[in-house]
Design a protein that fits this description.
The protein is globular and about 60 Å long. The chain contains 13 helices and ten strands. The protein has two domains: 2-103 and 201-315, D-Maltodextrin-Binding Protein, domain 2 (3-Layer(aba) Sandwich); 106-196, D-Maltodextrin-Binding Protein, domain 2. It has helices at 2-19, 36-43, 46-49, 65-70, 81-89, 138-145, 160-163, 177-184, 209-214, 216-235, 238-247, 253-265, 282-294, and strands at 21-26, 52-57, 76-80, 94-101, 106-111, 127-129, 152-154, 169-173, 188-192, 202-208. The protein starts with a helix and ends in a 22-residue tail after the last helix. The longest helix is centred in the C-terminal third of the chain and has 20 residues, at 216-235. Strands 2-1-3-10-4 form a five-stranded mixed sheet. The chain is of the alpha/beta class.
Length: 316
Amino acid sequence: MKRLAILFAWLYSSVVGAQLTPLTMQLNWLAQADFGGYFTAKADGIYEKYGLDVTLKQGGPQLNIHQLLAAGHVDFVMGTSVRTMVIRNQGVPIVAVGAFYQKDPVTFMVHAGSGNDQLGDLKGKPIFLPGIARLNYWPWLRGKMGFSDEQIRPYDPSYRALTFDKSAASQGYLTEDGFAFKKLGIAGKSLWLADFGWNPYSSTLDATDKLIAEKPKAVEAFLKATAEGYRRYLQDPSAANALIRKFNPQMDQEQIDYAYSVMKGKGLIDPGGGVKIGSMTDARWEQTYNLLRDSGVLPAGFDYKAAYTLRFVNQL
């Protein structure tokens, strides 16, 4: 009887496994708390519950994830509404099907007490900026704040350069800044661009026109499962955090805890007010397009609605 039970269990698992739809999700960086919804869905078997066999792949500094998506090497990537529109404008058939950060966490890190209390205070001062920012928020800041390209300094991801110039600023990330300041031993503060009118979605879930046309049920299931993963992560992050550290052993638990506290405290994923986790609206996409058009990043007449669909978030 015991052998029969084992045999039936093996046969059942084989049949169920054969029915799972394989999908690959390419993250935009190494495993971290910001990706907690994906890792919760993986650790807790939520993807399997939705009929999916999901492979999570870590990103890195030299990886062009949207190129991998366009080439069909992965099924989904993590983007932003800005990057998705810019790439769509270049003729690449990608589309955002959901957004897990309702606000872009990008910041400027500054020294506390330096007089840099508002974005406008940075006019004419050195700003350590990565190259991607020139096609992102920098044109908006030039128009809105009167910033100039002469302010740009080469980006230093260690932020060491910032420690030597108290008048300067560096691009940061809301879920990392406080931990970085503590590690550097300096008193600092974050100027969150979202507080000054920068309104794109971040951590978007991007797919291709082809995948949506061929596997719409799988796309819908993946979005729902990941949204459930983020909801559960906000309730209890322990299982996901253990898996994150397994994927990325260099990730410090203190850093994970800090990022998690910011994600919850700032309502990045679940801002309340009836906004569903993973959701998007036409109004927000239109606002972001208008912002990018007015700053010269995107041309007038660009069909921005082709860069996203509400077809799946409406099922959340």
